[in-house]
Amino acid sequence: MTWTITAEPYDSPAAAALWRAYYTEVSDRWYLLHEGRRTDPAELEREIAAGSGAELAPPTGCLLVGRYDGTPAGTAGVRLLDADTAELTRVFVLPERRGRNGAALLVSAAEVRARLLGARRIVLDTRGDLVEARALYARLGYTETAPHNTDPYAEHWFRKELGSDPVPVPESADPLS
């Protein structure tokens, strides 16, 4: 069983299903931690609809979908913030597919895509309760920095210099498709 990673429209059926799973998980984690309850279904629907992902459309963005043994199992998005800086977002792997290197492959493919968009650095934000994400980013060479945005849910900000060497293609990933 292997991972394949390809660019896909942000509103494709696979991307939409993975966005719903991602948002449901991170929203429920926040509400359980702070209010002792899961996300209200009406609120969940409003927020999913509000976060369409249009900012991940070409020519200044890209959504990558990772498939494990052919089945959609994870995402990573990248979008240009300015000519030199890309933002990594929507990094997610379905719980049943975690522990199989998918997140690292998705992030690596997103870094390649960011460089193809012209970025020299990549930034991201995450929450304090997403300890798995913070550990992943640290393991992949991201360093924690001062805030680069005012997102009310962001508690940790990271950055990685991408350099200007030729763009490598990660094993088991095709970020150019």
Q: What's the SSE blueprint?
A:
Layout: E1 3-8, H1 13-35, H2 41-50, E2 61-68, E3 71-80, E4 85-93, H3 102-116, E5 121-126, H4 131-139, E6 143-145, E7 156-161
Parallel strand pairs: 4-5
Antiparallel strand pairs: 1-2, 2-3, 3-4, 5-7, 6-7
Short description:
This protein has 177 residues and is of the alpha+beta class.
Describe, in plain words, how this protein is organized in 3D.
The chain is built from four helices and seven strands, in the order βααβββαβαββ. The protein has 177 residues and is of the alpha+beta class. Helix content is 32%, strand content 27%. It has a seven-stranded mixed beta sheet with strand order 1-2-3-4-5-7-6, with helices on both faces.
Low-confidence blocks of residues: 170-177
Largest sheet: 7 strands, mixed
Number of strands: 7
Q: What is the CATH class of the domain at 3-8 and 57-161? A: Alpha Beta
Average residue pLDDT: 90
Number of helices, counting only DSSP H or I runs of 4 residues or more: 4
The coarse overall form would be globular
CATH superfamily of the domain at 3-8 and 57-161: Gcn5-related N-acetyltransferase (GNAT)
Structural category: alpha+beta
Domain N-acetyltransferase: 17-163
InterPro entries: Acyl_CoA_acyltransferase, Bact_Acetyltransf, GNAT_dom
Pfam family, one: Acetyltransf_1
Keywords: Acyltransferase, Transferase
